[in-house]
Specification:
Number of strands of chain A: 25
Structural class of chain A: alpha/beta
CATH class of the domain at 119-263 in chain A: Alpha Beta
Shape of chain A: globular
Strand order of the largest sheet of chain A: 5-2-1-9-21-20
Radius of gyration of chain A: 22 Å
Largest interface: A-B, 47 and 47 residues
Low-confidence stretches of chain A: none
CATH architecture of the domain at 119-263 in chain A: 3-Layer(bba) Sandwich
Mean pLDDT of chain A: 91
Oligomer: homodimer
Largest sheet of chain A: 6 strands, mixed
């Protein structure tokens, strides 16, 4: 009694991040045909993107071909394409090449960097959301060192060796810690450069780092970063940036050739047309069942979905939320097909963590607060286990072990041709 | 009695390939100051470049930061810069940023792809001389598969899945074998594509492959490639290519979206101004002492140098020649400083080899002719041992082992932003 695949309900999933990939796999044995669409041919392990940006890992160690992951899933078709718009009335999505009809749609489009409509910032600073950006940051940082060795003007040389990160959330903290460690490695290679001229600065608009954790964790993060030589400036806003000088709030200026923007994300532009309602991070409101209000056959999960938790707080834009929502969206979708009642989403918060570098992390998990070496080991284990594919895990572990023992960085290559 | 480094003779080395890097290291304990210049910040292990082009290895596995390699060499300064021209009269080289004076110069500039002044070929086909080209080939090949799944016109789809390599030398043979194996891996990921439509074609203008080896080795190479599904067409010239259709000599056409040009190299353009004499591959004649005729303080080694062997044959453009010449150039340079007589170059030919893929290679070493599995093991061992850095060796070995056992390819990522 197997149905022809052509007669099966057509489920289209947009996005092969943590949410979309999880949803695709959860539908493996369901009586539906799945079409998964992503602009890239790989799934990106975003939590380690900052390591690519700081020459610790190479691109293929955190990216895994989607077709390879889903090779054995017979009810799935993968399409590498950029989705240009949604035509919910006609039940189709519009890609660069064609229109793809759906019976049910799961939007797992994630988020993008939010430059808060500041075109100067957008043009001159680096986001950290995809492989290209990470590799651009790596090339740029390494290039600054090479340029600095040839620069005779001390003022210009200092700006080349001043690396600024805006945003004291997990991404900013991890980037600052990783750059500080990279700089320490790099310095061995540039005996002619004055260490006094190398600065890593982390700017945070609020009065503490990692505001989603306890003040204790914020403080120990600050201390750990300071110990690595990172200058943390709290209560400091970036007003504008022209690629040479960062204009700070209180008429202060900071000359720097490098600004990494980790101070904001927002829902991916594709879904922003779905609602006029202005919600934080331009996210789109979903029902507790994860359907969008306008169309019961469309589910929206992950970073782009706005759903308050039991306390009225919007759920954080993190992978565990996306993955738990993927599980419920798939179950609700199958309930909808069978005309059963749908269930609401409840987030099981496992806690969160951030690494500050070698031997240093903070973690608040299952009610426990960890920091330092133990938190770092937990962080290492959790991330290694989640990396897709045995080969990736092994190669990443070798890279990490190498860096740990030898204070070295594996991928210190300046690659050209990335159009910058 | 140590001299001040400023008073030491200034030796400038252009190029950090096999020759230049070897020369730099050989000068480690000499009473000179060495300035090594390269356009990249890494030494590239060119013999494995085809593996990056076919998704077997990632860039950092065959490229190693020059500053890391030479960190402990106190008499050396590295400059990452593109050399624009040579001013031998003033004893300086002109880079993008500045002029660098020298007392002695070692030119180890290598070779570049020779499109024989055919601008169409140059524009539409891929060379294989640097990391960017290798990554462009990888992205392009993988993209053809993704595009083919969406293409409804059978003729166009077939051209997308026809991969043509021009040139039956070691590079062409290795590329053809590696693409044939990649295609076999890829096919598992694209169940919708007709294997009949996937073609790998190797074009060779002469009547046999690997013309520098014996006819026996040529024949077994041809057989091995045919066994992998490569169509080898001997006595076939490429006249032109517009990116869609390859025009062959005898009015024949071959529709293909991919032409990899491994049919010619020539001396790097930087040194071609040194002589008007037209020699094969636009190489520049050097004296047996490896000095150029015009200037006794300038040594030219490696691919760009034209020097006949005992039989009047020009030495091959391969790494062992460059490295042996580096050793002699350094010795002669030091003799010159001490006003001792210089010695002529004699090439110790260790033989040559080429891999055709999994379990398949040909090697002619020390008078022995090997082929098949044993030649492949020798090839593997020789190349692994030469790779700079323990970490690289280990990671490359894991990648190879993975591919060997699982018939998989590690780096099947389509990276964007490489401007193509």
């Amino acid at each position: 009694m197997t149905k022809n695949q052509n007669q099966l309900p057509r489920v289209v999933i947009v996005g092969a991040g943590f949410g979309g990939l999880r949803a695709a796999r959860a539908l493996a044995d369901a009586p539906v045909h799945v079409t998964l669409i992503d602009r890239n041919n790989y799934h990106l392990f975003q939590p380690l993107l900052y390591q690519v940006a700081t020459a610790g890992l190479s691109a293929d160690e955190i990216a895994y071909p989607i077709r390879g992951i889903l090779r054995k899933q017979k009810n799935l078709t993968f399409i590498m394409s950029e989705v240009k718009s949604l035509n919910l009335k006609e039940s189709e999505i519009i890609t660069e090449q064609t229109a793809i009809p759906f019976d049910y749609l799961i939007l797992a489009v994630g988020s993008e960097t939010n430059f808060f409509n500041n075109p100067d910032l957008q043009q001159h600073s680096y986001g950290l959301k995809d492989l290209q950006e990470a590799q651009s940051i790596r090339n740029h940082i390494l290039n600054q060192f090479e340029k600095a060795t040839l620069e005779t003007d001390e003022r210009l040389r200092k700006a080349m060796l001043t690396f600024v990160i805006a945003g004291g959330g997990p991404t900013g903290v991890e980037m600052a810690g990783a750059i500080a460690e990279l700089v320490r490695v790099m310095h061995k290679d540039y005996p002619g450069l004055d260490p006094q001229h190398i600065q890593v600065v982390l700017l945070e608009a609020m009065d503490r780092l990692l505001a989603h954790l306890t003040t204790d964790s914020s403080q120990s993060t600050l201390n750990a970063l300071a110990g690595k030589g990172v200058q943390v400036r709290l209560n400091t806003l970036v007003k504008s940036y022209d690629g040479r000088v960062i204009q700070l709030s209180e008429k202060q200026q900071l000359p720097s050739n490098t600004l990494i923007w980790a101070a904001g994300v927002q829902a991916a532009s594709l879904v922003r047309e779905l609602s006029q309602e202005k919600l934080p991070q331009n996210r789109i409101k979903v029902l507790p069942t994860l359907q969008i209000p306008q169309n019961e056959r469309v589910f929206l999960i992950g970073d782009a979905a706005y759903l308050p938790d039991q306390n009225g707080q919007a759920l954080p834009m993190v992978a565990p939320v996306a993955m738990q929502q993927a599980d419920l969206a798939v179950k609700n979708l199958l309930r909808l097909i069978q005309s059963e009642p749908l269930k609401p989403f409840y987030y099981k918060d496992m806690g969160s963590m951030a690494t500050i570098g070698r031997n240093q992390a903070v973690a608040e998990l299952f009610g426990l607060r960890l920091r330092g070496w133990l938190a770092w080991l937990v962080w290492l284990f959790v991330h290694l286990m989640q990396l897709v594919g045995f080969r990736n895990r092994l190669v990443v572990l070798i890279n990490w072990a190498w860096q740990y023992w030898f204070y070295d960085r594996a991928v210190r290559l300046i690659e050209k041709g990335d159009c910058d």
